[in-house]
Amino acid sequence: MSGIPADVDADAAPPMTVPLRHFVVALAFLVAGVTVGVVEGRTGHLAQVHLLLAGWVCLTIMGALTQFVPVWCGIELHSRHLAAVQLPLAAVGFAGLAAGFLTGTPALLPVAGAIALVGVWILCYNVGRTLLAAAPDVTAIHFGLALVFFALVTTAGVVLALDHAAGVLPLLGIGRQGLLLAHGTLAVFGAVLTTVAGALAQLAPMFTQADTGRIDTAAQRVETACYPVGVLLLAGGRLVGSLALARIGAVLVAAGLGVVALLLARQLIGARVEWSPMLTRYSVAALSLFLWAGLTAVAWWTDPLAYTGLLGQPSTVLLVGGVGFVVFGTLYHVVPFIIWVHRYSDRLGFEDVPMVDDLYNHRIAAVDGVALTIAYALLVSKQWLETPNGTALAVGLLAFFGSVLFAGNLVAVFVEHSPQSLPTLLTGRERTPGEDS
């Protein structure tokens, strides 16, 4: 875990300012989203969802796709200019959506939604054009399909925003609940979790150095073929109110994520490297996805069209455990990795340099991991069981504390090790690997 894998082409990466800007802005959305949850509670739910899921998770994914599609595939990014443009548009759009929900200003939602759509569609075009030159392996296929889902979910989101402001759905002949269900399905299971599954197919073997057998390969191929179909069937069935379509899609989605969880768990159990914050958080994600898949398969078979079952049962296990902890773990390697390549890679062999995992503070990582895990456990118990009234406050405070420590630990990596200052990184010119300050 302390070195750079030999089978990736770091020279094909875009300048470090491109992905790192995404990650820094995404961390701000994380802290803002947790803060809204603490201060506003249930009244700020929609704003918090868009701050965390769209702002934190999706901006992180946008930065990661822009960085690692060229690295993994060994090809140049189609356009660095478009990669730089997508972030401000998407970030302003996501922030505008959250502000519209938080302030009760429906007229703001279509404007913000349209801005976000343009930013996300630029990503889809830019990374999509890049993927066209790549070999169609498991990860590339997942990423390509995720881009399709990103385009679909932003389109549905703009329609919903227009309906909030002007009530357009009756004119289009579309039911509001059906479109809401389809929008949520395409967002979480399509755009986010398809990306997560594709990334884990590369990251888990790469950073555990575990052996991969024929059974793993076969299961991965089945998941690659069936899971995206399941997402489309589930979203389509929910949109038109078809129980049969939604039920088939629900089975494929739950089974696909169950396979992802099992494959990840096998890699973690067979890991031949020193345990790290990345792998620790991945273990929480593997357990969460497996638990969620088993419980949700039963709930969705009974009623996949219920709004309360939009994200399965319990939704917290999927969103926090299955998605959140994957992002936490991945960022604990990706951010130091990118900075290490641009600051220290050209010095390796000529002088003593820190390794990738030496760039962040491991004690802080341990504390934020404990805080976020306890908050997660309390949140799950609150959703499943009747807990004291103070539980929600404890969850919020622990989540805020852990998120601030996590964000601060990564920002410290920028401050201490980046060849550029943080303000210059966010606003200055692009740099290439090996260029020092």
SSE layout:
Elements: H1 17-40, H2 45-73, H3 80-103, H4 108-131, H5 138-166, H6 169-172, H7 176-208, H8 214-240, H9 243-269, H10 277-302, H11 315-343, H12 362-384, H13 391-417, H14 422-427
Structure description:
With 437 residues, the protein is mainly alpha-helical. The protein has a single domain (10-427), classed as Cytochrome C Oxidase, Chain A. Helices cover 76% and strands 0% of the residues. Helix 3 packs antiparallel against helix 4.
The sequence of SSEs as H and E is HHHHHHHHHHHHHH
Structural class by sheet pairing and helices: mainly alpha
Largest sheet: none
Mean pLDDT metric: 90
* Amino-to-carboxy terminus distance: 26 Å
Poorly predicted spans: 1-6, 431-437
Shape: globular
Could you say what the CATH topology is called?
A: Cytochrome C Oxidase, Chain A
Q: What's the level 1 CATH class?
A: Mainly Alpha
The tally of helices reads 14
The CATH architecture can be named as Up-down Bundle
Keywords: Membrane, Transmembrane, Transmembrane helix
Transmembrane segments: 20-39, 51-69, 81-101, 108-128, 140-166, 178-201, 244-264, 284-302, 317-341, 362-380, 392-415
Protein name: Cytochrome oxidase subunit I profile domain-containing protein
Which structural traits does this protein have?
single chain; Cytochrome C Oxidase, Chain A; Cytochrome oxidase subunit I profile domain-containing protein; transmembrane; 76% helix; disordered N terminus; Cyt_c_oxase-like_su1_sf; 437 residues; mainly alpha; membrane; 0% strand; disordered C terminus; transmembrane helix
